[in-house]
Amino acid sequence: MLKLSLKRFASVLFFQMLFLVVDLGINSFSYLARGHHSAVIFLFIAQDVCLMLSFTAFVFSLYSTYVYQAGMANLLYEKFRTPLLISMTYFFLSIALHLWQVLGHSNEPYQFQWPKALTALFIIHRLFSPIYYYLYKKSALKMSDPRFYENLDWIASQLSIK
User: Rounded CA gap, 151 and 128, in Å?
Assistant: First the structure.
């Protein structure tokens, strides 16, 4: 049982880190494809799909814990509220930036005079991304803690603190 669980968590963690690397790569190098409209659309769709899959993998790992299955989802929510909110906010920032860049700026891809609001959204998105990367990676690694899956004493101690 433990060996099967270890393989499952290792594979989920691998895919979570893969999604982060893909997101980081697209954020870093998508400007190289700005002259090719279809390539930019493909990259942005791939990034948004990776963000959705990473959020799904994170929620899946939350739901597979013993804590959640024992009916104490509020403990998990309290512990992982910030990463969940940051993930959703980053996803919506990404969607807004991608839509604006593809729909509003497709005619002149090499123009460097963006509207001020688009520039502000781009800066906010790029400043928000390291926060997302840090919290998501920290949460994914924290979810591999065996206490979430088997230790009843830890749950009892968390409930007694409340």
Answer: 35
pTM: 0.83
For the chain, what are the domain ranges? 4-158
116-142 helix and 2-29 helix, angle to the nearest 10 degrees: 160
- pLDDT tens string, the chain, 162 residues long: the values are 445 466 777 888 899 999 999 999 999 988 787 778 888 889 999 999 999 999 999 988 888 887 787 777 888 888 899 999 999 999 999 999 999 888 876 566 566 677 888 889 999 999 999 999 999 999 988 887 767 766 666 666 666 665
